[in-house]
Each structure stands twice: as C-alpha cells, then as structure tokens.
Specification:
This protein has 157 residues and is mostly helical. It contains 7 helices and 2 strands. It has a two-stranded antiparallel ribbon with strand order 1-2.
C-alpha cells in the first residue's frame, strides 16, 4: 500500500510542477486588481458619467491613497488618463480591457446560474472566478451556455 501511495505521489509530482500553477495564480491575482478597477471605472462612467478617485475608494472600501497607487499603475500601463482633481478616463486600451472583462464576467455568471447556483451566490462567486479563468475556459463556458439555452429552447417546444 505504501508503495502505491509513493508511486501515485511520484506520478503527480512529475506531471506538472506545482510552482507553475502557483505562478499562474500569482499572475491572476495581480491582473485581478487591474481588471476590477478598469471594470469599475467603466461602470461609473456608464452610470454616473464620470469616475473619480473618491468614487473608487468608496466602491472598493479602500483609502484614497490606495486608489491613487492603483491609478498610477493603470496610467503606467496605458489603461487610464488621470490628472489631479479631475476624473479618471479609460484609454482605448482600457476600454477594450473593460469590455473583455465584462463579457468574461457575464459568461462566468451565466454558467454558474445554468448550473443551478443561487443568484446571489453566483454573482458573488463570479467576481472572483472570472479573473482565474483562461480564455480557453471562458470559451468552453460560452459554448456550454449556448448549448444549454438551445436545449432549453428545444425542450420548451
């Protein structure tokens, strides 16, 4: 029995080094903050007509100094334009990212709902899951949703 466990452990350890998985998770976490801010800036512009640092601080429950630090990073990365005492505006690159994140969020949310996850839970979970899904996974989810809706439509006839 111990030999079987050792053999399984050896097989698992040689399949894919753990550090590769952890590296991806670290990268996902770094990208998550950027994506959340870009998505929220787009949301604020859509619903309030502007995005200010104070709005972001309130929405994320952080200090204005924390928002300033992230906005500086977003400016460095070419995702926003911002000047002191003015609003924060997405660049074309930032708008493209915000659109991609919003679409990905919708796919993840709809997948969770199709799986029967309660609405409130699906909305909360999709906020975190969306940042850790590869493009391939999101595409598979999108195709699943299309098949799911087609099956529902066929069943209702």
């Amino acid at each position: 029995m111990l030999r079987a466990i050792a053999s399984d452990k050896e097989r698992l350890m040689t399949a894919t080094p753990h550090h590769e998985h952890f590296e991806r998770v670290r990268q996902d976490h770094q990208r998550e903050l950027v994506e959340d801010y870009v998505e929220e800036i787009a949301h604020l512009h859509q619903h309030l007509g502007e995005a200010r640092a104070s709005d972001l601080a309130e929405r994320f429950g952080v200090s204005p100094a924390a928002v300033s630090k992230v906005v500086t990073r977003l400016k460095r990365d070419g995702l926003v334009n911002a000047r002191p005492y003015r609003g924060i505006f997405l660049t074309e690159q930032g708008e493209n990212l915000a659109l991609k994140v919003a679409k990905r969020h919708e796919v993840v949310l709809n997948t969770l709902l199709a799986l029967g996850v309660p609405d409130a839970v699906a909305r909360a979970d999709s906020e975190g899951i969306e940042h850790h899904c590869s493009d391939e996974t999101v595409e598979a989810m999108r195709q699943f949703i299309q098949r799911y809706h087609a099956d529902l439509e066929t069943a209702s006839r």
